[in-house]
Amino acid sequence: MDQKQDVVRLPAERLYLEELEVLKQGDQETKPAGWQLSPKAVLTFLTGGKVKGVPITPKYIGNKRLVEMAIATLLTDRALMLIGEPGTAKSWLSENLTAAIHGDSGKVIQGTAGTSEEHIRYSWNYALLLAQGPSDQAIIKSPIFRAMETGGIARFEEISRCASEVQDALISILSEKTISIPELGREVSASRGFSVIATANTRDRGVNEMSAALKRRFNIIVLPAPSNIETEVEIVRKRVGEISTSYELKASLPEEEAVRKVVTIFRELRSGVTLDGKEKVKGPSGVISTAEAISLLTGSMALAGSFGNGRISEEDIAAGLQGAIVKDEEKDRLVWKEYLENVMKKRGSTWRNLYYACSEMNN
Predict the structure, then answer these.
(1) 244 is in which domain, residue-wise?
(2) Per its UniProt record, what InterPro entries does this chain match (predicted)?
(3) What is the pLDDT of residue 1?
């Protein structure tokens, strides 16, 4: 069996291996130390284009200037922080940036309440430590430690989920570009090309505020939600197609009208006003992001392929909408019912079947 089919999710450097190889072959620009592609080739990989007649699929659909700023940051001694609402492709951009620059996006720290300073610096294999004492063999290197040794990029996901004192362990690493190992009486200095890309969710603001000292070590780029419905529809269609292929879902891709309806509902609930600006709507308690829309439609494909005729029905979409919107049972159910009655019901025949299916699910 093809090795690609043996894993649930391939890292970006393997998923887009052919594109990266084409870009390497056609890249005539100067490459920074430790980079496998020039900055312009990295930009092409991320925003799309054509190299030697081979199409390069866009990985990030949005403001190209933001991508240029992110790449430029990684050419300097500054680390990069991507901030945005849930579902604004922070992690996706971080992964693909790292894959394009170094061909290894796997040096990742996932920020949680349980993340400790050892996850950022290093820890010990205590069996070896007791048997041999402190030694290089007994060190368990963190992703940042390994990135420093190889001149790679470490990714720190959801950094604001970590305790503030844990976050601050990064300050000396980003300032001095070294990790001190007092047990061995030495320091590890970063090789050229080393950097850190962190992501932070604006919904987590106030959970563990980052210190001003840490923020000064980063160039911060805010990734906005898709600016218009056309962009969001394009993003959703592209990702649903990629995910359905990866999971071999036995259903046809959703028609553009279905995608547009889901995106319209999400944008209106997210913004608190209908697209025409004529009516205010209440928003649910949960996150109504582009990523949720993608998940909803892939779930609808799974339903249609497994229990339907292979084509997404209004009932499949209604089931997905119910799960995505109604998180707090009572409050969200009322918000959703109000939207159905005051907005969707009034949209005429093209929305009627979806309205009936959603109303039945919400009762």
Answers:
(1) 229-362
(2) ATPase_dyneun-rel_AAA, CbbQ/NirQ/NorQ/GpvN, P-loop_NTPase
(3) 40
